[in-house]
């Protein structure tokens, strides 16, 4: 997305270059944390199996699928590791597999989203173009997500479109995960991933989409402060809904080359310098996102 000239009133070109610096160490640390949480979710359910730990494990796994998708996105931008080859390998084989996201196909599609954000040609606009929507309509969407209808639909579409070059990493991931859990004496735990993928992740993904472009003042203009949103999450929302700083979506649209681990500092500096002043583009928690995403049902009387 082309930058509006005003951004250079708030940041120097030298500061922008500094924010864009990649770090293999910080990217590796981010990846390691998410892999540890992924393994920890299975360990929690396997070592202390009961309804509470199983539900917690499924929620944690849903958040990790989101995290793997976010890191795939960052690798697609070349904005995670300093090394292009590491971005390619990790994005395709390490995080793209569990995210069910073919790196190359995703990159082609997603870069068009950045190129055309704020225009009728944005390929993602159809997902959020009708927001805000009636509360009853939003409730039906989340019911479909949480009952597996959305996840099953997406899985069928994925299976029908399977190719080795695109979906091979996902198949390798599933075979490896099933074998590892079987070797650990807990083959049943493999079902936890599918519970997260089919019952939790679709709702998380929808909520993230809404927060990014569904609760904005005007998605038909080029200014990112008007067509894109940022959300400041609570700690548990960060763990489940917005891992890896994906909540700083407005900042990402301003500078797509800035790695995720530098987005919080970029956000703080832009706030300090007044870049967002007079723009209602920052939500505080995902309850605020849902409030902004809904309007009164048609049957609900509106006070005069």
UniProtKB/TrEMBL annotation:
MF annotations from Gene Ontology: sphingolipid delta-4 desaturase activity
Transmembrane segments: 35-61, 171-200
InterPro entries in alphabetical order: FA_desaturase_dom (IPR005804)
Keyword Thylakoid part of the UniProt annotation: no
UniProt keyword annotation of Transmembrane helix present: yes
Keywords per UniProt: Membrane, Transmembrane, Transmembrane helix
GO BP term (any one): ceramide biosynthetic process
GO cellular component terms, semicolon-separated: membrane
Pfam family, one: FA_desaturase
CDD domains (alphabetical): Rhizobitoxine-FADS-like
Ranges of residues in domain Fatty acid desaturase: 52-275
Protein name: Fatty acid desaturase
């Amino acid at each position: 997305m082309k930058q509006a000239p005003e951004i250079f009133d708030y940041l120097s070109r030298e500061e922008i270059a500094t924010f864009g610096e990649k770090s293999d160490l910080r990217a590796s640390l981010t990846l390691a944390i998410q892999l540890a949480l992924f393994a920890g979710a299975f360990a929690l359910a396997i070592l202390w199996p009961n309804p509470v730990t199983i539900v917690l494990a499924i929620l944690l796994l849903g958040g990790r699928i989101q995290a793997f998708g976010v890191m795939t996105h960052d690798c697609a931008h070349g904005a995670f590791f300093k090394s292009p080859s590491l971005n390619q390998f990790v994005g395709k084989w390490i995080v793209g597999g569990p995210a069910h996201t073919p790196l190359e196909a995703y990159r082609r599609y997603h870069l068009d989203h950045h190129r055309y954000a704020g225009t009728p040609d944005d390929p993602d606009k159809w997902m959020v173009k009708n927001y805000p929507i009636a509360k009853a309509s939003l409730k039906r969407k989340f019911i479909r997500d949480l009952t597996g209808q959305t996840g099953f639909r997406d899985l069928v579409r994925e299976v029908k479109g399977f190719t080795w070059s695109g979906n091979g990493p996902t198949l390798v991931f599933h075979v490896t995960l099933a074998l590892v859990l079987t070797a650990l004496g807990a083959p049943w735990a493999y079902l936890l991933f599918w519970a997260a993928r089919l019952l939790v992740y679709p709702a998380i993904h929808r909520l993230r989409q809404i927060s990014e472009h569904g609760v904005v003042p005007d998605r038909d203009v080029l200014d990112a402060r008007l067509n894109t949103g940022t959300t400041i999450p609570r700690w548990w929302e960060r763990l489940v809904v917005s891992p890896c700083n994906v909540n700083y979506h407005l900042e990402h649209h301003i500078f797509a080359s800035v790695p995720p681990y530098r987005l919080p500092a970029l956000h703080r500096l832009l706030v300090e310098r007044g870049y967002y002043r007079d723009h209602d583009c920052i939500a505080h928690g995902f309850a605020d996102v849902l409030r902004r995403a809904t309007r009164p049902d048609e049957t609900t009387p509106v006070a005069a």
